[in-house]
Amino acid sequence: MVNTTTLIEKDIRQIASNIKIPKYVPSTKFPSDVIKYMKKNAILKQTVKLMKLNKFFLQEKFELFYLGDKTSVYQLNNNSVRISVNGENHYSIDELPNILGVSRYLLIYTDNVLPRLISKIIICDLKYLLLTLLRISFNDFKFLTSSVNFKKLLLNRAIVFSKNDEIVPYECLLDHVPYLQELRLSHILSSEISKVFIEKICSSNMKKLAFSDIDEKFEFESILASLKKKPNLDVHLSFHNPELVLERIDKYVDKLLASGLTKFCPPSFGFFYPKTTRYDSYKNLRKSYFESVH
Which of 11, 98, 127, 193 has the fewest Cβ atoms nearer than 10 Å? Predict the structure, then answer.
């Protein structure tokens, strides 16, 4: 099997060979010697930002340790943290250089050493981010989700906190992921879903919204009604104790079955839903909806 990193490096070299680095300082209000100093002395993260601004700042040599397409950060039983790349290579935080590049999938299961890891990342081009059972600063969250290619976010009992150590509400997180297409929130309460959050979801590019491991007090009926402003949104609901809400779900499903196929996407209630005639009918209703919009 051909190494993915090798292919990417070959592509980069081919692209770079066609780029001519300007010899002269670009037109700017800053003195030319200041611009030259910035190019020569910028730290790595600043260098990346400068290169995006103007070709003059491109470096003839730019060292980067590319982690791979799927990076996992997890804690072992002895409390040590391992960084796994594509399920094959495993590193400790001390083994990784300060010139990391990450792309596509990043799955983080512990906040131990998380600030150190992020400080080592020079280029971040993620498509998918999973944060589980941890706390992460708002600035670090914004950095990890800053790519225009970022599409999927899963927060599993993860807390994003501000400089004042306050929890950043979900609606504020949405402001920094404009290209997000899929959002999954675990162990969330109805009270955490604000009117502003619903409005931002409805005006977004979101295609799928999932609430998992929710309790029986979760007011899914009113939330689904509010989300009808975005009729094509595929909503998934799974409950921690589904037997406690089965009667409510049956009542909701019966109303949708009575209405038949509409312009609204019927929500999914997870794999737990009992295999009954009602289940089969509802499954066919969802199938008919997706066939009607494709």
Answer: 11
Closest CA to 74 of 40, 17, 114: 114
pLDDT digits (tens, 9 = 90+) for 135-161: 999 999 999 999 999 999 999 999 999
Find the angle CA(20)-CA(25)-CA(28) to the nearest 5 degrees. Answer: 130
Residue 275 has pLDDT above 60, yes or no: yes
Phi, psi angles (nearest 5°) of residue 135: -115, 140
Q: The whole model's pTM is what?
A: 0.80
Best CA proximity match to 256, nearest among 276, 282, 231, 224: 282
DSSP string, the chain: ---HHHHHHHHHHHHHHTPPPPSSPPS-SS-HHHHHHHHHH--HHHHHHHHHH-GGG--S----EE--SEEEEEE-TTS-EEEEETTTEEE-GGGS-S-EEEEEEEEE---TTHHHHHHHEEEEEEEEEEEES-EEEHHHHHHHT-STT--EEEEES-EEE-TTSPBPPHHHHHTT-TT--EEEEES--GGGS-HHHHHHHHTS---EEEEEEE-TT--HHHHHHHGGGSTT-EEEEEESSGGGTHHHHHHHHHHHHHH-S-SSPPPB--TTS--SHHHHHHHHHHHHHHHHH-
Contact (Cβ atoms closer than 8 angstroms) between residue 97 and residue 65: yes
